Amino acid sequence: MNPLVSIITPTHNSAKYIAETIRSVQNQTHHNWEMLIVDDCSKDNSVDIIQNFMEDDHRIHLIQLNKNVGPAKARNQGIEKAEGKFMTFLDADDIWMNDFIQNSIETIQNTGIDFVFSSYKRSNEDLEFIYSDFIVPKKVTYTDILKTNSISCLTAFINIEALGKKTMPEIRKRQDMGLWLKYLKQIPFAYGIQEPKAIYRIRENSLSRNKKGLLKYQWQFYRKVENLNIFQSAYYMLHWMYRGFMKYRN
C-alpha cells in the first residue's frame, strides 16, 4: 500500500525556516506525497527558496495568492487542491521526524481510526530543546478539544478518503481547532500517538503563548463558531485557560 498523502503548508515571510521544513518532508520514509505550499504574499525570498526546491522535486507545488488572506484561507486553498487519500498539515517553521507519515498511516491501518495525531518535541527558534516534550492524550473527543486543543496542526493526519474533505472556518484565529471539531462531530474520537514525531518551533512572538491576547478570540469561537450558550462557553473557557497555562510551563 503506497497511498498519496497531501501536505498543506501555508507560508508568509518564512525564508528563515522553510528550507528545513521542506527537507524534513523530503526525508520521509514514505515517498508518495504532494506538498502544497500556499504563499500568502511573502515579502521576503520565501518564493525563491521554494521554487529552487521545485526544480528538483516535482512533488512540491506552489500556490501563490495575490493578496494576503491569513492562515485559514491559505490552508483552505491547499485543502481544495489536495488529491491524496490522506491530508496533513505542516507549518513553514516546523519539522517532521523521518517516519512521521509512515507511522501515521500504519496507526490508521492498525486502529481503524481515520483521524490520528502525534506527540511532538518543542524547541526554541534555534532548535534547542529547552521545553519538555508535549505528549498528547491517547484519544480526544469533541468535548475534549473544546477544553484544550491538544491536536497540533503539525501532526494532525486525516483519512479524507473515508471522512471527506472539510475546510477550516475562515476566522482570524483558532481555525485549526474549528476543523478538528468538524471531524470530531463525525467520529467518536481521534487517536493520539504517544511517541513524538515532530518538532514544534516556539518563536518568541508566538501568539499561541500569548493566552491573554487569545481570550476574546476563544470566547468568540465558542459563541459564534460552535454556537454554545453563555454557560457552556464559560465552562469550556475555564478549562481552556487552566490547561493553556499548564501546557506552556517549562
Could you describe the 3D structure shown?
The chain has a single domain, classed as Alpha-Beta Complex (Spore Coat Polysaccharide Biosynthesis Protein SpsA, Chain A). It has 9 helices and 9 strands. The longest helix is centred in the C-terminal third of the chain and has 18 residues, at 230-247. It has helices at 18-26, 46-56, 71-81, 100-111, 142-147, 160-163, 175-184, 211-225, 230-247, and strands at residues 5-11, 33-39, 60-64, 86-89, 95-96, 115-123, 139-140, 157-159, 190-201. The mean pLDDT is 93. By secondary structure, the chain is of the alpha/beta class. The protein is globular, with a radius of gyration of 17 Å. Helix content is 38%, strand content 20%. It starts with a strand and ends with a helix. Strands 1, 2, 3, 4, 5, 6, 7, 8 and 9 form a 9-stranded mixed beta sheet that branches.
CATH architect. name: Alpha-Beta Complex
Q: What's the structural domain tally? A: 1
N- to C-terminal distance? 41 Å
Please give the radius of gyration in angstroms: 17 Å
CATH class: Alpha Beta
Task: State the main characteristics.
250 residues; alpha/beta; Spore Coat Polysaccharide Biosynthesis Protein SpsA, Chain A; nine-stranded mixed β-sheet; 9 helices; 9 strands; 38% helix; globular
Quick synopsis:
By secondary structure, the chain is of the alpha/beta class.
